[in-house]
Amino acid sequence: MREPTAPPLARAALDRDGEARAADDFTVRFDADPAARVIALHRDRVLLAERIEGSAPAMLFLRPSEVPSSTLRCYLGRTVASAGMDDVDDVAEAAELPPGTPVEVRVFDADAAALIEPEEARWAGLRSAASVLGDRDAGLFTQALALANWHSVAPFCPRCGATTTVVQAGWARRCDREGNLLFPRTDPAVIVLVTDDDDRVLLGSNALWEQHRFSLLAGFVEPGESLEAAVVREIGEEAGVHVDRVAYGGSQPWPFPASLMVGFTARVADGTVPSSVAPDGVEILELRWFSRADLTAAVEEIALPGGTSIARWMLERWYGGPIPESQPWTTT
Predict the structure, then answer these.
(1) How many whole angstroms separate alpha carbon 161 and alpha carbon 155?
(2) Could you tell me the pTM of the whole model?
(3) What letter would DSSP give residue 313?
(4) Is the peptide bond before 257 cis (omega within 30 degrees of 0)?
């Protein structure tokens, strides 16, 4: 398997096919296309294909005629060939859905979901499923969930309060009174791998987590603020120290509900004593510095970020490879 060069949820290649989604007759043409496929979403969970012994988990792709009425449908785009195709998951995915396959997500209520598949175990959330799905399927799931989450909070126009109608194959909503268009939003957040002069990494435990969970420090970008300025502010607020040498490291979507996690590295500023870090006591309750040896030893007592997170990807790039752990970060 090739070494991943991008965060887990940022590896999928997809033609989003923006021109097609704007056509007035798009839904009619999609439903009539024998190549078209649908992924089913219910309560933020996607329907997985029935497992065959020895096969990897995969999303189930249905024909439009195989699904009941949905509460929402959004066009995700067309599949494309993965560069290189040297990964087993890539080859399997391409065999199932050839390049150019148009894909929609459809959101179903409880009754419709039960008609499609009554077995609860076949419906899986992104945090648990993405780590075992191939890159394409994980990317489609991420995109589908991000769109569905936006639609769930945008039934009314923020300008006048009127109802809105889904248009452009799920990529916009139109105000029923004034006709203005609303588009899906993304909330940028910075996540920072802070190191000191000894190349130790700073990890924090959030007040909302159970004890012994540690991750990189992160926070939302404020209005009128650059990403780099947000890095300096967030570390100052949460850890009480100044950082510099801020450098971009990568990004990935995180649809819980609509974040774009932008990864940075930063170094504690010259003259700052690493031991002076202090949690704010509100968001962050504990801060600890870890060398690579410290982190290896600490996995018996702490839980680290899950495999689908950019935090885990950034940590393992610093660590130099996969981090052994005995307490996985449990999610649903």
Answers:
(1) 9
(2) 0.91
(3) H
(4) yes
Nearest to 40 by CA among 158, 157, 134, 119: 119
Q: Let me know how long the chain is.
A: 332
Q: How far is CA 28 from CA 41, 66, 117, 147, 169, in A?
A: 21, 16, 25, 21, 11
> Which tokens sit at 199?
């190349």
Task: Report the greatest alpha carbon distance in the chain.
Answer: 67
* Contact between 253 and 259 (Cβ < 8 Å): yes
For the beta carbon of residue 3, count every other beta carbon within 10 angstroms. 5
Which two tokens mark 168?
Answer: 């452009």
The dihedral over CA atoms of 292, 297, 302, 303, expressed in degrees to the nearest 10, equals 60
32-56 burial, b for 16+ CB within 10 Å, e for fewer? eeeebbbbbbbebbbbbeeeeeeee
Asked if residue 1 has pLDDT above 70, the reply is no
How many helices (DSSP H) and strands (DSSP E) are in the chain?
Answer: 9, 15
Tens of pLDDT, residue by residue over 241-253, are 999 999 999 999 9
As a whole number of angstroms, the distance between CA 94 and CA 138 comes to 14
Q: How far apart are CA 181 and CA 86, in angstroms?
A: 42
Only one residue has tokens 């000894």, namely: 198
